[in-house]
Structure prediction request, 368 residues.
Amino acid sequence: MDADQSALADQPRPLAGETQALAGPGDYFALLKPRVMSLVIFTALVGMVAAPGSVHPALAIISLLAIAVGAGASGALNMWWDADIDAVMSRTAGRPIPSGLVPRSEAAAFGGFLSALSVALLALASNYLAAGLLAFTIFFYVVIYSMWLKRLTPQNIVIGGAAGALPPVVGWAAVSGSAPLEAWMLFAIIFLWTPPHFWALALFKQGDYARAGIPMMPNVKGDRSTRRQIFAYALALAAIGVLPFFVGMATIFYLGAASVLGAVFVWLSWRVLRAGAGDQGPAKKLFGFSIFYLFALFAAILIEQLAGLHG
Amino acid sequence: MADHEKQAAPQPSVHGLTPEEEKMRARRNRAIALGLAAFIVLVFAVTMLRLGGAATG
Prediction:
Protein backbone atom coordinates (compact mmCIF):
# COMPACT_ATOMS: atom_id res chain seq x y z
CA MET A 1 0.00 0.00 0.00
CA ASP A 2 1.62 3.29 -1.03
CA ALA A 3 1.30 6.60 0.80
CA ASP A 4 -1.66 7.76 -1.25
CA GLN A 5 -3.61 4.57 -0.67
CA SER A 6 -2.93 4.56 3.05
CA ALA A 7 -4.06 8.17 3.19
CA LEU A 8 -7.29 7.27 1.44
CA ALA A 9 -7.82 4.35 3.77
CA ASP A 10 -7.85 6.79 6.70
CA GLN A 11 -10.64 8.94 5.32
CA PRO A 12 -14.09 8.64 6.87
CA ARG A 13 -16.37 6.44 4.78
CA PRO A 14 -20.07 5.72 5.20
CA LEU A 15 -20.77 2.64 7.28
CA ALA A 16 -22.24 -0.43 5.61
CA GLY A 17 -25.93 0.10 5.03
CA GLU A 18 -25.67 3.81 5.88
CA THR A 19 -27.19 5.94 3.13
CA GLN A 20 -25.22 8.91 2.02
CA ALA A 21 -26.96 11.93 0.56
CA LEU A 22 -26.25 12.79 -3.07
CA ALA A 23 -24.30 15.97 -3.60
CA GLY A 24 -26.37 19.10 -4.07
CA PRO A 25 -25.50 22.27 -6.01
CA GLY A 26 -23.85 23.70 -2.90
CA ASP A 27 -21.35 20.85 -2.78
CA TYR A 28 -20.33 21.51 -6.38
CA PHE A 29 -20.04 25.22 -5.61
CA ALA A 30 -17.72 24.30 -2.70
CA LEU A 31 -15.47 22.52 -5.24
CA LEU A 32 -14.79 25.94 -6.76
CA LYS A 33 -13.05 27.15 -3.57
CA PRO A 34 -15.29 30.23 -3.17
CA ARG A 35 -12.95 32.01 -0.77
CA VAL A 36 -10.00 31.73 -3.15
CA MET A 37 -12.34 32.75 -5.95
CA SER A 38 -13.28 35.95 -4.10
CA LEU A 39 -9.60 36.96 -3.94
CA VAL A 40 -9.19 36.19 -7.64
CA ILE A 41 -12.28 38.25 -8.53
CA PHE A 42 -11.00 41.16 -6.48
CA THR A 43 -7.43 41.19 -7.85
CA ALA A 44 -8.66 40.68 -11.43
CA LEU A 45 -11.12 43.56 -10.95
CA VAL A 46 -8.26 45.80 -9.80
CA GLY A 47 -6.27 44.79 -12.89
CA MET A 48 -9.25 45.68 -15.08
CA VAL A 49 -9.85 49.03 -13.41
CA ALA A 50 -6.15 49.98 -13.43
CA ALA A 51 -5.70 49.10 -17.10
CA PRO A 52 -5.86 51.93 -19.65
CA GLY A 53 -8.77 51.91 -22.05
CA SER A 54 -12.38 51.06 -21.54
CA VAL A 55 -14.81 48.28 -22.36
CA HIS A 56 -18.58 48.02 -22.20
CA PRO A 57 -19.50 47.51 -18.52
CA ALA A 58 -21.51 44.37 -19.35
CA LEU A 59 -18.54 42.87 -21.21
CA ALA A 60 -16.30 43.74 -18.26
CA ILE A 61 -18.66 41.95 -15.85
CA ILE A 62 -18.88 38.90 -18.13
CA SER A 63 -15.07 38.85 -18.44
CA LEU A 64 -14.74 39.00 -14.66
CA LEU A 65 -17.26 36.17 -14.35
CA ALA A 66 -15.24 34.09 -16.82
CA ILE A 67 -12.04 34.71 -14.82
CA ALA A 68 -13.84 33.73 -11.61
CA VAL A 69 -15.22 30.53 -13.15
CA GLY A 70 -11.78 29.70 -14.54
CA ALA A 71 -10.26 30.12 -11.08
CA GLY A 72 -13.03 27.99 -9.58
CA ALA A 73 -12.51 25.31 -12.21
CA SER A 74 -8.82 25.08 -11.38
CA GLY A 75 -9.84 24.74 -7.72
CA ALA A 76 -12.12 21.80 -8.59
CA LEU A 77 -9.34 20.13 -10.59
CA ASN A 78 -6.97 20.69 -7.67
CA MET A 79 -9.45 19.02 -5.30
CA TRP A 80 -9.79 16.12 -7.74
CA TRP A 81 -6.03 15.58 -7.88
CA ASP A 82 -5.36 16.19 -4.18
CA ALA A 83 -8.32 14.23 -2.75
CA ASP A 84 -5.99 11.77 -1.04
CA ILE A 85 -4.04 14.43 0.85
CA ASP A 86 -7.13 16.55 1.54
CA ALA A 87 -8.59 13.54 3.38
CA VAL A 88 -5.79 13.47 5.97
CA MET A 89 -5.51 17.21 6.62
CA SER A 90 -7.84 18.71 9.24
CA ARG A 91 -8.16 21.94 7.22
CA THR A 92 -9.38 20.14 4.09
CA ALA A 93 -10.98 16.88 5.34
CA GLY A 94 -14.46 18.42 5.09
CA ARG A 95 -14.17 19.18 1.37
CA PRO A 96 -16.78 17.55 -0.90
CA ILE A 97 -14.54 14.73 -2.19
CA PRO A 98 -12.93 13.50 1.05
CA SER A 99 -16.27 13.77 2.83
CA GLY A 100 -17.70 11.40 0.22
CA LEU A 101 -20.27 13.78 -1.26
CA VAL A 102 -18.78 14.20 -4.73
CA PRO A 103 -17.00 11.37 -6.58
CA ARG A 104 -13.52 12.24 -7.82
CA SER A 105 -14.43 11.52 -11.45
CA GLU A 106 -17.32 14.01 -11.26
CA ALA A 107 -15.07 16.68 -9.79
CA ALA A 108 -12.59 16.14 -12.63
CA ALA A 109 -15.32 16.37 -15.28
CA PHE A 110 -16.87 19.40 -13.58
CA GLY A 111 -13.50 21.21 -13.38
CA GLY A 112 -12.50 20.32 -16.93
CA PHE A 113 -15.84 21.38 -18.37
CA LEU A 114 -15.84 24.71 -16.52
CA SER A 115 -12.20 25.35 -17.52
CA ALA A 116 -13.07 25.05 -21.22
CA LEU A 117 -16.23 27.10 -20.77
CA SER A 118 -14.50 29.94 -18.92
CA VAL A 119 -11.65 30.26 -21.43
CA ALA A 120 -14.10 30.23 -24.36
CA LEU A 121 -16.31 32.83 -22.68
CA LEU A 122 -13.35 35.11 -21.94
CA ALA A 123 -12.16 34.80 -25.54
CA LEU A 124 -15.62 35.86 -26.71
CA ALA A 125 -16.09 38.66 -24.19
CA SER A 126 -12.59 40.19 -24.34
CA ASN A 127 -9.65 38.93 -26.43
CA TYR A 128 -7.42 35.95 -27.11
CA LEU A 129 -4.54 37.26 -24.97
CA ALA A 130 -6.71 37.35 -21.84
CA ALA A 131 -8.21 33.94 -22.68
CA GLY A 132 -4.75 32.50 -23.31
CA LEU A 133 -3.49 33.87 -19.99
CA LEU A 134 -6.50 32.37 -18.20
CA ALA A 135 -5.87 28.99 -19.84
CA PHE A 136 -2.21 29.22 -18.83
CA THR A 137 -3.23 30.09 -15.24
CA ILE A 138 -5.45 27.00 -15.02
CA PHE A 139 -2.73 24.81 -16.58
CA PHE A 140 -0.07 26.19 -14.24
CA TYR A 141 -2.17 25.70 -11.12
CA VAL A 142 -3.36 22.20 -11.96
CA VAL A 143 -0.42 20.65 -13.80
CA ILE A 144 2.68 22.56 -12.67
CA TYR A 145 1.63 23.21 -9.07
CA SER A 146 -0.87 20.51 -8.05
CA MET A 147 0.40 17.56 -10.08
CA TRP A 148 4.10 18.27 -10.14
CA LEU A 149 5.54 20.68 -7.58
CA LYS A 150 3.25 20.32 -4.56
CA ARG A 151 4.48 16.87 -3.57
CA LEU A 152 8.01 17.34 -4.89
CA THR A 153 9.71 20.39 -3.44
CA PRO A 154 9.45 22.88 -0.53
CA GLN A 155 9.56 25.58 -3.23
CA ASN A 156 6.09 24.36 -4.32
CA ILE A 157 4.17 27.43 -3.29
CA VAL A 158 6.95 29.81 -4.39
CA ILE A 159 6.77 28.68 -8.02
CA GLY A 160 3.11 27.64 -7.85
CA GLY A 161 2.28 31.10 -6.51
CA ALA A 162 2.55 32.36 -10.09
CA ALA A 163 -0.88 30.90 -10.79
CA GLY A 164 -2.48 32.89 -7.97
CA ALA A 165 -0.63 36.01 -9.06
CA LEU A 166 -1.85 35.98 -12.67
CA PRO A 167 -5.51 37.13 -12.29
CA PRO A 168 -4.73 40.89 -12.26
CA VAL A 169 -2.69 40.39 -15.45
CA VAL A 170 -5.63 38.51 -17.00
CA GLY A 171 -7.96 41.33 -15.94
CA TRP A 172 -5.58 43.96 -17.35
CA ALA A 173 -5.31 42.08 -20.65
CA ALA A 174 -9.09 41.68 -20.85
CA VAL A 175 -9.51 45.47 -20.90
CA SER A 176 -6.42 46.68 -22.74
CA GLY A 177 -5.50 43.70 -24.92
CA SER A 178 -1.94 43.87 -23.60
CA ALA A 179 0.10 42.90 -20.56
CA PRO A 180 2.64 45.66 -19.91
CA LEU A 181 5.11 46.09 -17.02
CA GLU A 182 2.47 47.71 -14.77
CA ALA A 183 0.32 44.59 -14.93
CA TRP A 184 3.31 42.42 -14.06
CA MET A 185 3.98 44.66 -11.08
CA LEU A 186 0.62 43.61 -9.66
CA PHE A 187 1.66 40.04 -10.45
CA ALA A 188 4.94 40.54 -8.55
CA ILE A 189 3.13 41.81 -5.44
CA ILE A 190 0.97 38.67 -5.19
CA PHE A 191 3.89 36.44 -6.19
CA LEU A 192 6.06 37.74 -3.32
CA TRP A 193 3.10 37.75 -0.93
CA THR A 194 2.36 34.03 -1.45
CA PRO A 195 5.38 32.42 0.32
CA PRO A 196 5.13 34.33 3.63
CA HIS A 197 1.34 33.85 3.59
CA PHE A 198 1.47 30.06 3.11
CA TRP A 199 4.59 29.48 5.20
CA ALA A 200 2.97 31.29 8.13
CA LEU A 201 0.06 28.82 7.76
CA ALA A 202 2.47 25.90 7.39
CA LEU A 203 4.23 26.87 10.63
CA PHE A 204 1.12 26.23 12.70
CA LYS A 205 -0.31 23.43 10.50
CA GLN A 206 2.95 21.50 10.30
CA GLY A 207 1.38 18.29 11.65
CA ASP A 208 -1.26 18.37 8.93
CA TYR A 209 1.29 18.72 6.15
CA ALA A 210 3.53 16.06 7.68
CA ARG A 211 0.61 13.57 7.84
CA ALA A 212 -0.19 14.31 4.20
CA GLY A 213 3.46 14.00 3.18
CA ILE A 214 3.55 17.48 1.64
CA PRO A 215 7.11 18.88 1.67
CA MET A 216 6.24 22.32 3.00
CA MET A 217 9.18 24.49 4.01
CA PRO A 218 8.86 24.01 7.82
CA ASN A 219 8.66 20.22 7.40
CA VAL A 220 11.70 20.07 5.13
CA LYS A 221 14.01 22.88 6.23
CA GLY A 222 12.69 23.40 9.75
CA ASP A 223 11.14 26.31 11.63
CA ARG A 224 14.21 28.53 11.86
CA SER A 225 14.95 28.48 8.15
CA THR A 226 11.27 29.07 7.32
CA ARG A 227 11.04 32.04 9.68
CA ARG A 228 14.15 33.59 8.13
CA GLN A 229 12.72 33.14 4.65
CA ILE A 230 9.37 34.61 5.70
CA PHE A 231 11.20 37.70 6.92
CA ALA A 232 13.26 37.98 3.72
CA TYR A 233 10.12 37.72 1.57
CA ALA A 234 8.36 40.28 3.78
CA LEU A 235 11.18 42.78 3.13
CA ALA A 236 11.00 42.12 -0.61
CA LEU A 237 7.20 42.43 -0.54
CA ALA A 238 7.28 45.74 1.33
CA ALA A 239 9.75 47.09 -1.24
CA ILE A 240 7.84 45.91 -4.31
CA GLY A 241 4.58 47.05 -2.69
CA VAL A 242 5.54 50.72 -2.97
CA LEU A 243 6.99 50.38 -6.48
CA PRO A 244 3.73 51.21 -8.34
CA PHE A 245 4.08 54.79 -7.03
CA PHE A 246 7.63 55.15 -8.36
CA VAL A 247 6.72 54.03 -11.87
CA GLY A 248 3.84 56.51 -12.01
CA MET A 249 1.16 53.87 -11.69
CA ALA A 250 -0.18 55.13 -8.35
CA THR A 251 -0.40 58.31 -6.32
CA ILE A 252 0.83 59.43 -2.92
CA PHE A 253 -2.36 57.96 -1.43
CA TYR A 254 -1.29 54.51 -2.52
CA LEU A 255 2.29 55.14 -1.39
CA GLY A 256 1.06 55.97 2.11
CA ALA A 257 -1.15 52.89 2.30
CA ALA A 258 1.53 50.56 0.89
CA SER A 259 4.17 51.95 3.25
CA VAL A 260 2.06 51.46 6.38
CA LEU A 261 0.83 48.02 5.30
CA GLY A 262 4.34 46.95 4.30
CA ALA A 263 5.80 48.17 7.61
CA VAL A 264 3.19 46.18 9.58
CA PHE A 265 3.88 43.09 7.44
CA VAL A 266 7.63 43.38 8.10
CA TRP A 267 7.02 43.96 11.82
CA LEU A 268 4.79 40.88 12.12
CA SER A 269 7.34 38.83 10.16
CA TRP A 270 10.05 40.06 12.53
CA ARG A 271 7.94 38.82 15.43
CA VAL A 272 7.63 35.43 13.69
CA LEU A 273 11.41 35.38 13.27
CA ARG A 274 12.00 36.20 16.96
CA ALA A 275 9.28 33.87 18.31
CA GLY A 276 10.37 31.03 20.54
CA ALA A 277 10.14 27.42 19.44
CA GLY A 278 6.55 26.22 19.66
CA ASP A 279 5.10 29.75 19.88
CA GLN A 280 2.51 29.74 17.07
CA GLY A 281 0.85 33.04 17.99
CA PRO A 282 2.99 35.32 15.77
CA ALA A 283 2.62 33.01 12.76
CA LYS A 284 -1.17 32.99 13.18
CA LYS A 285 -1.20 36.79 13.43
CA LEU A 286 0.95 37.13 10.32
CA PHE A 287 -1.29 34.72 8.40
CA GLY A 288 -4.41 36.68 9.33
CA PHE A 289 -2.80 40.03 8.53
CA SER A 290 -1.41 38.79 5.20
CA ILE A 291 -4.96 38.30 3.89
CA PHE A 292 -5.92 41.80 5.01
CA TYR A 293 -2.67 43.17 3.51
CA LEU A 294 -3.44 41.97 0.01
CA PHE A 295 -7.06 43.12 0.09
CA ALA A 296 -6.09 46.53 1.48
CA LEU A 297 -3.22 47.09 -0.96
CA PHE A 298 -5.35 46.27 -3.99
CA ALA A 299 -8.27 48.22 -2.51
CA ALA A 300 -5.97 51.28 -2.38
CA ILE A 301 -5.34 50.96 -6.14
CA LEU A 302 -9.06 50.46 -6.75
CA ILE A 303 -10.06 53.45 -4.63
CA GLU A 304 -7.67 55.86 -6.28
CA GLN A 305 -8.71 54.70 -9.74
CA LEU A 306 -12.43 54.99 -8.95
CA ALA A 307 -11.95 58.35 -7.21
CA GLY A 308 -10.04 59.65 -10.21
CA LEU A 309 -6.94 60.39 -8.12
CA HIS A 310 -4.75 58.78 -10.70
CA GLY A 311 -4.38 60.80 -13.91
CA MET B 1 -46.06 1.02 16.94
CA ALA B 2 -42.58 -0.07 15.96
CA ASP B 3 -43.98 -1.76 12.83
CA HIS B 4 -45.84 1.42 11.95
CA GLU B 5 -42.63 3.47 12.24
CA LYS B 6 -40.82 0.96 10.07
CA GLN B 7 -43.49 1.37 7.37
CA ALA B 8 -43.16 5.18 7.49
CA ALA B 9 -39.39 5.11 6.90
CA PRO B 10 -38.32 6.36 3.42
CA GLN B 11 -38.04 3.51 0.96
CA PRO B 12 -35.69 3.51 -2.07
CA SER B 13 -37.47 4.25 -5.34
CA VAL B 14 -37.31 2.06 -8.43
CA HIS B 15 -34.11 3.96 -9.33
CA GLY B 16 -32.52 2.85 -6.05
CA LEU B 17 -32.63 6.36 -4.62
CA THR B 18 -34.32 7.45 -1.43
CA PRO B 19 -36.81 10.36 -1.63
CA GLU B 20 -34.14 12.60 -0.11
CA GLU B 21 -31.64 11.58 -2.80
CA GLU B 22 -34.23 12.07 -5.53
CA LYS B 23 -34.91 15.56 -4.19
CA MET B 24 -31.19 16.31 -4.22
CA ARG B 25 -30.87 14.97 -7.78
CA ALA B 26 -33.75 17.18 -8.91
CA ARG B 27 -32.06 20.21 -7.32
CA ARG B 28 -28.82 19.34 -9.09
CA ASN B 29 -30.57 18.96 -12.43
CA ARG B 30 -32.26 22.34 -11.97
CA ALA B 31 -28.86 23.90 -11.19
CA ILE B 32 -27.33 22.38 -14.36
CA ALA B 33 -30.27 23.63 -16.45
CA LEU B 34 -29.94 27.12 -14.96
CA GLY B 35 -26.17 27.09 -15.56
CA LEU B 36 -26.59 26.11 -19.21
CA ALA B 37 -29.32 28.69 -19.71
CA ALA B 38 -27.10 31.35 -18.13
CA PHE B 39 -24.23 30.40 -20.44
CA ILE B 40 -26.47 30.67 -23.51
CA VAL B 41 -27.74 34.07 -22.37
CA LEU B 42 -24.15 35.23 -21.73
CA VAL B 43 -22.92 34.13 -25.17
CA PHE B 44 -25.93 35.81 -26.79
CA ALA B 45 -25.34 39.01 -24.80
CA VAL B 46 -21.63 39.07 -25.65
CA THR B 47 -22.37 38.54 -29.33
CA MET B 48 -24.93 41.35 -29.39
CA LEU B 49 -22.65 43.74 -27.47
CA ARG B 50 -19.65 43.04 -29.69
CA LEU B 51 -21.67 43.26 -32.88
CA GLY B 52 -23.22 46.48 -31.62
CA GLY B 53 -19.78 47.85 -30.77
CA ALA B 54 -18.43 46.92 -34.21
CA ALA B 55 -21.44 48.48 -35.94
CA THR B 56 -21.02 51.80 -34.13
CA GLY B 57 -17.29 51.77 -34.84
About this structure: The mean pLDDT of chain B is 79.
